[in-house]
Automatic annotation (TrEMBL):
One Pfam family per UniProt: GerE
Alphabetical list of SMART domains matching this protein: HTH_LUXR (SM00421)
CDD domains (UniProt xref): LuxR_C_like
Superkingdom of the organism of origin: Bacteria
Protein name: AAA family ATPase
Biased composition, class Low complexity, residue ranges: 195-206
The keyword Transport is assigned to this record: no
InterPro entries xrefs: AAA_16, P-loop_NTPase, Sig_transdc_resp-reg_C-effctor, Tscrpt_reg_LuxR_C, WH-like_DNA-bd_sf
Keyword tags: ATP-binding, Nucleotide-binding
Domain HTH luxR-type: 899-964
Length: 971
């Protein structure tokens, strides 16, 4: 036998020689284990044998590669080998491979006897362990110092392991080191399990002491470290949590999961951060995946038992009884199968829990569990799920008998148990009591409302809808689906469900209820950016085709006009039809809001007093009160009224956390919590939750861009603005124009900034907009003053003063004071100090940190009060405005003021420079943004690269995206 395989036992056969060995190889989460390996290699008195243990996918092969690389670096000849499944059937095969590997490597130099290979083959054929051992000692001694690295030694034949253990002890030190990797499973709470056939692996005892390194599963933090370079982005905490939950920290499983998601475009990257896309599915592992091969190698009936347990395992020991019934196997056969599934690491047998009847099993990898369950087929899943549901219902009703094998005892916590039951109801479909299933699914979905992130709500509502047969009940369920879909951002589903109801509404729906549904349809159409259809919805004819009552049709038509930015038409329509829709508190909610928004946009004096609270009462559902309150908060936040928003939330007994994510972003921005605002903004973009109705359609990207500019990332802000712009048919882009002007000004392009600001004002005039034009006019005034155009600046200021007079808005008043001071200050006005004093007092009273800091900076310069720079400096630091803080630092030095924290300032300068570099700016652009010379920037970059050890911009940007090269001491 050995003679026949003599050509197949060299180093290329089953070896790691073909792998790429990298000197900078870094294994994520293995720093401690690698340090232990290094200590073993460098210790002349250490045991000769190192056993590396880990479960399937733990990275044993990668660790073996790292060991080989380190041993080579210490001047040893490395013989890399790998065992295969089935090798254990060939006695002494591994020992022969080691002899041949050493012989082939050294025979050319004449240091090994030419006949040694033939002698070894002959000894193996005879089964002469002593002769094989002698040949092995000769080969290794003459090749010394040598290291034998054997991967997957659990497949090795026992005779070879015995010989290797003997020989390792016989070769004089420091002649040989032996590194072997072995598959071992560590069940939760239990002892270390041996290889797939239950025997020990590695050199047996009695031949000297070996050292063992166990490769544990990765922690969530290490999963994040693994994910970042793979995605070239910082992974979101929820993404890391999902990867960890599905893989239990097994590196290969995490890699397979990330590969599958990448193949499905299920990962979104926003501002250098990676998120899972909305409704990102849990993928199925392919048949050739290592985990599925382990299961497939068991064949039937183990596969059938695994499929049954993938549905039933949370039922504890009862799952085995139910699996036997579903598969037609005896309970003894099921027990044998579960034992084999545990042995290969597919299942874990759970430890005893006193609160339950008996122990049970769980899948070692939730990803494998999901794959097995989904591949079992819908009919099989439905039957198993129905059995589980019926058993749980019976147990809950007290009709399931005494605790025993036939009564389920859930082995998961209460929250998981509830979700498990609901998911089994979903899969069971019509095989269980429909009425009870609908009741439980609906109640659970209602309990999640208004959770904007948990999409289980919509899944459960859809499942309930499929079970309902009564037309009236189906209509109500469809309405629940529409509302649920809207809450989680599935606007297509929401609009489709709403239109289905409106095409044939039942008599059970009241006028106000029909109004809500019609409004939802209009909102979903706008969210889908179907602007032509939205425009058609602004005509009475479109609604007449649906035969809706006026209390529903008129407000929906007015809403369509508002979202199409035909504000005057909307206000006129609502004014002349008030008698048709103002029939009660509920019916007035949205029309009153639409009129308030229209008045704000048109700049009607005193158009938004805080007393415009949405009504509440016995006829208004709580969810509608919440929706209207959130809408009014959005409107107040849009005009930068932080105090008004806070008052409204307090009046309604709501916390800021209860607001929708878009409004929370605006609130955080005004509160100066810009890092939190940016994190939420990234999430909104990645999850495709950016829709906001006019007039604030573009407020999220515009204010996100403003944060980016303040942080020193103008190029990222410009890219964001470009992506947010439409084709000209959609909502007005005044806020994007404002943000664009700030970007261009920061990049030293004042002429271009002036052009985009003037364009925004022209577009606003064309559509009858006043809202937002105060910001544009103020910014244009500043640009024109800086360009030395006092006449044009004065014209822009007059426009700003007109808006301030019309609206009485505090923000507009503040902008007017600052712009007036800027113009008057440059051209000799004596009133500058008074204006800036008033501006500082007003800004402080408004309680918005960034706005206050900007005002203080202006007052320090224009009113000759440099001491105000200290306060501005601190506020810019609190808001994370790194670029503004840098400029303030420069102004303080120019004014002869001491800048606190020299070391901190140096670190901030370095991080700001890194941000600008990562943003993709050239040296010239960086110099413009920082207001430095190009030589100064070049010198700073040279020092930055030297400290971090990074040699190029590309390498630096990659490091910034996946880690923190600016940590203490660089890399």
């Amino acid at each position: 036998m050995a003679g026949d395989r003599a050509q197949d036992v060299g180093p290329e056969h089953g070896a790691t020689a073909g792998r790429t060995h990298l000197g900078h190889l870094r294994l994520v989460g293995r720093d401690r284990e690698l340090a232990e390996l290094d200590a073993w290699i460098d210790d002349p008195d250490a045991p000769r044998v190192m056993v590396v243990e880990g479960e399937r996918g733990a990275g044993r092969t990668a660790f073996a590669d790292a060991a080989a690389e380190r041993l080579r670096g210490r001047g040893r000849l490395v013989l890399p080998l790998a065992c295969r499944d089935g090798d254990e059937r060939d006695p002494l095969l591994l020992a022969l491979r080691v002899v041949v590997a050493a012989w082939e490597h050294r025979s050319a130099a004449g240091r090994v006897r030419p006949d040694l290979r033939a002698e070894a083959v002959s000894a193996v054929d005879r089964g002469d362990r002593t002769a094989v051992a002698d040949a092995l000692v000769t080969a290794l001694t003459q090749a010394a110092p040598v290291a034998v690295v054997v991967d997957d030694v659990q497949h090795a034949d026992p005779a070879s392991l015995d010989v290797l253990g003997t020989v390792t002890a016989r070769v004089p030190p420091p002649g040989v080191r032996l590194v072997v990797t072995s598959l071992r499973h560590t069940p939760g709470g239990g002892p270390v399990a041996t290889g797939p056939r239950g025997r020990a692996v590695g050199p047996p005892a009695g031949h000297g002491v070996s050292r063992t390194i166990a490769l544990p599963c990765l922690t969530p933090g290490q999963i994040a470290d693994l994910t970042a370079p793979r995605l070239q982005a910082v992974p979101d905490a929820a993404l890391v949590e999902r990867v960890f939950a599905l893989t239990r920290g097994v590196p290969a499983a995490a890699d397979a999961l990330l590969s599958a998601w990448a193949g499905r475009d299920a990962v979104r990257v926003a501002d250098g951060h990676a998120f899972l896309a909305p409704d990102a599915p849990t993928p199925l592992l392919p048949d050739d995946d290592r985990f599925m091969r382990a299961l497939g190698g068991l064949g039937e009936p183990c596969a059938a038992v695994a499929a049954a347990l993938s549905v039933l395992w949370p039922l504890g020991r009862t799952a085995a009884t139910m699996a036997a019934r579903s598969t037609g196997l005896s309970e003894r056969e099921v027990a044998a199968c579960t034992g084999r599934l545990v042995a290969v690491g597919v299942l874990d047998e759970l430890p005893w829990r006193e609160a339950h009847f008996a122990r049970g099993w769980t899948f070692r990898s939730p990803l494998v569990e999901h794959t097995v369950r989904e591949r079992s087929g819908p009919l099989s899943r439905a039957r198993l799920s129905a059995a589980a549901v019926e058993a749980l219902w019976a147990a809950g009703d007290g009709t399931g008998g005494e605790v025993g094998p036939d009564r389920p005892a859930l082995i998961v916590d209460e929250a998981e148990a509830q979700t498990y039951l609901l998911e089994r109801i979903v899969d069971a479909g019509g095989l269980v009591d429909r009425d009870r299933a609908v009741s439980e699914l609906t109640a659970a979905a209602d309990a999640l409302h208004p959770d904007h992130e948990d999409r289980r709500m919509l899944r459960w509502l859809r499942a309930a809808l499929r079970l309902i047969e009564d037309p009236a009940a189906r209509e109500l369920a469809l309405l629940r689906c529409a509302k649920g879909a809207w809450v989680v951002g599935d606007h297509r589903t929401a609009g489709g469900a709403a239109e289905t109801i409106l095409r044939a509404p039942s008599d059970a729906l009241s006028g106000p209820e029909l109004q809500e549904i019609a409004n939802l349809l209009v909102g979903a159409t706008a969210a889908g950016k179907d602007w032509p259809r939205l425009s058609r919805m602004g005509s009475a004819r479109w609604w007449e085709a649906l035969s809706l009552p006026a209390v529903a049709a008129v407000p929906a038509q007015a809403l369509a006009l508002c979202l199409a930015e035909r504000w005057q038409e909307a206000v006129d329509l609502l004014s002349r039809t008030r008698a048709q829709w103002a029939t009660g508190a509920r019916g007035r909610l949205l029309p009153d809001l639409a009129r308030a928004v229209g008045n704000v946009v048109r700049g009607t004096p005193g158009s938004l007093p805080v007393t415009l609270l949405p009504p509440q009462g016995p006829g208004v559902p709580p969810d509608l009160v919440y929706a209207m309150t959130a809408a009014y908060c959005e409107l107040l936040l849009g005009v930068r009224d932080l105090a008004g928003t806070t008052s409204l939330l307090r009046a309604r007994g709501l916390t800021p956390e209860a607001l929708p994510a878009h409004s929370r972003f605006l609130l955080l921005h005004l509160q100066g919590r810009c890092d939190e605002a940016m994190a939420l903004s990234r999430w909104l973009f990645a999850k495709e939750q950016t829709f906001a109705p006019a007039p604030h359609h573009h407020l999220l990207p515009a204010r996100t861009a403003a944060i980016l500019v303040a942080k020193g990332r103008p190029a990222a802000a410009a890219r964001l603005i470009d992506r947010a712009r439409g084709d000209g048919d959609g909502p007005l882009e005044v806020f994007l124009d404002l943000a664009d002007g700030a970007v261009l000004s920061a990049l030293g392009r004042p002429e271009a900034a002036g052009q985009v600001l003037r364009r925004g004002l022209r577009a606003a005039d064309a559509r009858g907009y006043v809202h937002g034009t105060d910001e544009l006019a103020a910014a244009l005034t500043v640009v024109q003053v800086a360009a030395g155009r006092p006449g044009e600046a004065a014209a822009s200021l007059r426009r700003l003063e007109d808006v301030a007079a019309r609206t009485g808005n505090e923000r507009t008043r503040l902008l007017r004071l600052l712009a007036s001071a800027r113009l008057a200050g440059r051209y000799g006005s004596d009133d500058v100090r008074d204006m800036l004093h008033e501006a500082v007092e007003l800004a402080r009273s408004r309680g918005q940190p960034f706005e206050t800091a900007v005002t203080l900076s202006a007052a320090a310069r224009g009113a000759d009060r440099p001491e105000l720079l200290h306060e501005a400096y601190e506020l810019f630091g609190e808001t994370g405005a790194a670029l503004r803080r840098f400029h303030t630092r420069s102004a303080m030095r120019a004014a002869g003021l001491a800048v606190p924290g020299r070391k901190q300032s140096a670190e901030e300068n370095e991080r700001l420079l890194a941000a600008l570099l990562t943003d993709g700016l050239t040296n010239r652009q960086i110099a413009t943004v920082l207001r430095l010379s190009e030589d100064a920037v070049a010198n700073r970059l040279t020092r930055l690269f030297a400290r971090t050890g990074l040699r190029s911009r590309t390498e630096f940007v990659s490091a910034m995206l996946t880690g923190d090269p600016l940590g203490e001491g660089g890399r």
